[in-house]
Queue: 3 jobs
Job 1
Amino acid sequence: PIIVVSVSDEEGGSPDSTPHLKELARGAVAGLVFESGRAGDAIITRRRGTGGITATATGKAAHAGNAHADGANAIWALARFVDAAERETDYARGTTVNVGTIAGGTSKNTVPAHASCVVDLRFNTARDADALIAALGEAARIATRDVPGTTIALDGGIRRKPLEKSATSAALYAEYAAHQRASGLGDAEAALVGGGSDANTLGEIGVPVIDGLGPRGDGFHT
């Protein structure tokens, strides 16, 4: 049997559809993902994994002029965490950390009791994903140690594990590429793709999968 799944929440990480996709695809012989095709009809066999963390720092409010010593600056603690988190970026390993938004405080003369940031995570291997989450936890611990009276809570984690090429997915690519050639299309293997897709989910449950099989396009997210 062939099962066709149309996913409406993929761009947000497929939070609602993933359990259904896993249930339908478990044990499948192959998975074909019809994301937009790449230049030259290149077939995707590898994707980076994705994740997201919201870091929320809590301190103690105080008047910055009259009682500065009584406060605990949540922004200062979060700033230390942000610096440590960004330093986990390692281009050689394919690991990137991006603090995309940050907010905190109430006024310049108040020691801030709250601050938060949202962090985007990308990685090439499952091992690197686990190491990155552990490193962020340690960064939060050190940041709050250095700013007494503060805490940092981390919410989130790995959203999609990396799609790593396997022997079975390589064989699927070779077979599909032959049919593309026979149809007058390109047959190249795409370079590692930075964003995740539902192919990552299929690969996680052991289904041989290739991606980027839809109509070719360009200018994604523009």
Note: The mean pLDDT is 95.
Job 2
Amino acid sequence: MSDSHPLFEFDDSQTAVINPSIHRAIPGFPERAVNTWFGDVFRGRFADSIPLYSIPFEHGAHDVHVVTRNGVDVAVFNTPVGAPAAVAILESVIALGARKFIGCGGAGIVREGFDVGHVIVPTGAVRDEGTSHHYAPVHHEVAPHPAALAAIDATLTEAGVPHDRGLTWTTDAFFRETPAKVSRRREQGCICVEMEASAMFAAATFRGVTYGQLLYAGDDVSAEEWDHRHWDSQTTARERLLDLAINAACRL
């Protein structure tokens, strides 16, 4: 493919026409933050709380709340599905003042053998999406911050939570996870598939902040017939993963 393709036009300038600084830094804003894709858990947990900040977005505002655990303040916010919007919200929270992030969400399984709710720690992500290419030059994979990986591993080990580490496949189109693509990603070493990790890793690296992610095994796309496995109703697993992410953020 020609280098003139738009996705190959990486520009390393930190200044754009619209910048995250439209969200002014908040004095005393928590250095640590957790983003979660579990909208149901987030809404339930903060139903009676007043947000510290609300990030306006066309599909609806994204509130940022603060929890205190073991004397450490952690900002918690809900990220939308899909790399473009998720990264935009991440950028906004970085602008507010956060520097150390742990994300948590679900993922489809591309390699059989993982029960619903099993915890997966991505050590890298295959970039099958567009957003990361605006934050890093063309390359197949991008990685989380080592300090975030260490904090996640220590938290899971201390809590006695079984988990697997490995590659995740980040895609823009879950209706285009064809059997051939699933097989190819599996051959490359991917455990699971989701829609944001590679972009979140790339954006965090570009902005010089720490970011790592926790996932739980959700639906199964390892065979030609999709197995939903009621992955989005695993409330206990989702609540546990959010708490683990907050604990990991406190270690950073």
Note: The longest helix spans residues 235-251.
Job 3
Amino acid sequence: MGHSNISIFVPHLGCPHQCSFCNQKHITGCVEQPKAKDIDDAVNIALSSKNFNSSDAEIAFFGGSFTAIESSYMLELLSSASKYVKNHTVSGIRISTRPDCINAEVLEILKEYGVTSIELGAQSMIDEVLIANNRGHKSFDVVHASKLIKDYGFSLGLQMMTGLYASSKEYDIATATEIIKLDPDTVRIYPTITIKNTYLEKLFFEGKYAPQTLEDAVVLATKLEDMFLNHGINVIRVGLHTIENDSYVAGPWHPAFRELCESHRFKLKL
């Protein structure tokens, strides 16, 4: 039985920066912020699925920077989710956040409420790329936060992006190399897609940013996935889940991006 997430999207919630590529509302289709009842509803829907497996399911907060949101609201969401960990409906809670929004105090709270997995949006390990894309943190923050997360016994996930503004194939490979050194349990690889109402869209129409072609993105993502797998790191996502139909501007989006990577891998073997 495969791993499953009960996903709760918190678009832009807690994000202190507007990154060049990001418009979560266009990616997730979510506008309203979730309430405790939304978590209950999501769990009940998951329980009705014949494929649901309590021993390998997590409630997952994605979309914003979970540990940067207002404290009382974060605790409200965690309280609603943690009761399902305590009664063994799910095995744990997964959150996604920024590398510069992790510290010992936050990790103590997350541990208390049953959080088991923390994913960091590293995106790049090249400082000039992070600066160019308005990330608001540097590679050191990724290194520091990753060590803290592992020291506290959480499962560490790292997310990286290929084809960012001011990046290159060589920079993306270097990012993967640095991520491998941090020894995460899981990795996600996201080719950069230009979405409406983002700084990247402005750069694209000004001719200052050239997105990856689909072919180039597939070839590079396949290489990066092999790098991670060869070091025993589980790649749990390659490519965006979905985007709203009218939000796409440019870039290598495909509804079955990972399958394209698998086909490319078989082609190389042949």
Note: The longest strand covers residues 115-123.
